[in-house]
Structure formats: C-alpha cells, structure tokens
Amino acid sequence: MKPARLIAVGRLRAGPEAELFAQYNARLRPPLAVTEIPEARGSAAEVRRREGEAILAALPEATLAVALDLGGAAPDSEGFARLLTRWQESGRPLAFLIGGAEGLDPAVLASAEAKLALGPMTWPHFLVRGMLAEQLYRAQAIRDGHPYHRAWRP
Ligand SMILES: C[S@@+](CC[C@H](N)C(=O)[O-])C[C@H]1O[C@@H](n2cnc3c(N)ncnc32)[C@H](O)[C@@H]1O
C-alpha cells in the first residue's frame, strides 16, 4: 500500500502530543508521511487563506484529499475502515489535511474529496494528529481481524 500523507498546520514539538502520534504512526503499514505547514500570521481569514494556499501547494497532483473538519461526516470506526479501503483502492495519492487554530480555509474544504469529523467537539489540532493516527491503526486492525479492535459493547 502506498503511504498516505498527513498535511498539517504547525510544527509539532517534542511532548505528549508528538509521542501519541509517533506511537500510532509507527504501527501503520506504511506510516503516514508528514508535511508540516508553517502557521501564518494576520487576521483569522488571512491566516486561513495563507495556510490554505500552502496546503494546496503541498498536495501532489491528483491527490484524494480528506479534510479533517468539524463539518464533516463522522463515521464509526468500521465505517471509517471501509472508507479508507475505498480511498486506498482509488489508486490516487491519499492525503489527510488538518488545519491550524483558525481551521481550514473554505478553498481547501471545497477542494477536498471528503470531510471527516472526529465527533462534534473541537479538538486541539496537535491532538487531532494522534487521534487520526489511532483511527488509521484501528482501521488496519479491523481489516486484519486483529483483536485491538473490539466491536462488542453492552
Ligand atoms: C482548533 S481546530 C480549528 C477550529 C476552527 N474554529 C474550526 O471550526 O475549524 C484545528 C483543526 O483541528 C481539526 N479538528 C479539530 N476538531 C476536530 C473534529 N472534531 N473533527 C475533525 N477535525 C477536527 C481540524 O482540522 C481543524 O481545522
């Protein structure tokens, strides 16, 4: 499987969020390749626009982009595993996009093939990297029939 790319705003420094991401990313076959976009300055709209331009410029041609966004669909983990399989089988480069403190620019959201929410709450963008990597690992476990994922609940 070709590696998916994570394009995320901000520089993740050493600390608990970096460790969380590294722990799950290391379990992915293959791990996500990470491209960090520098945080922009200006008004909220300028920040979104500048960061958005940099995100779009970082996307390889024909990329199937999945934007992490509160307004996106929120599948359960099995549904996400099925979506991931469909995206990977498209044969196109796959990239997940995470915005910065001001969120993703409308131009980025409009260009994305899919929008994915990790529930209705707003999470810090550096934590979202680890949460996404965990769900990608869970999707891998679901497809492999690995007991990491226990679907049963009372
Ligand atoms: C602090 S949030 C930005 C909040 C911004 N006001 C907005 O509504 O997008 C930074 C980034 O983290 C990601 N994010 C935060 N919470 C999320 C959630 N529940 N689902 C998906 N992505 C989320 C998104 O990529 C977002 O652009």
TrEMBL record:
It is found in: Cytoplasm. CDD domains: RlmH-like. Coiled coil: none annotated. Keywords: Cytoplasm, Methyltransferase, rRNA processing, S-adenosyl-L-methionine, Transferase. It holds the Pfam family SPOUT_MTase. Belongs to the RNA methyltransferase RlmH family. This is Ribosomal RNA large subunit methyltransferase H. The lineage of its organism: Bacteria, Pseudomonadati, Pseudomonadota, Alphaproteobacteria, Acetobacterales.
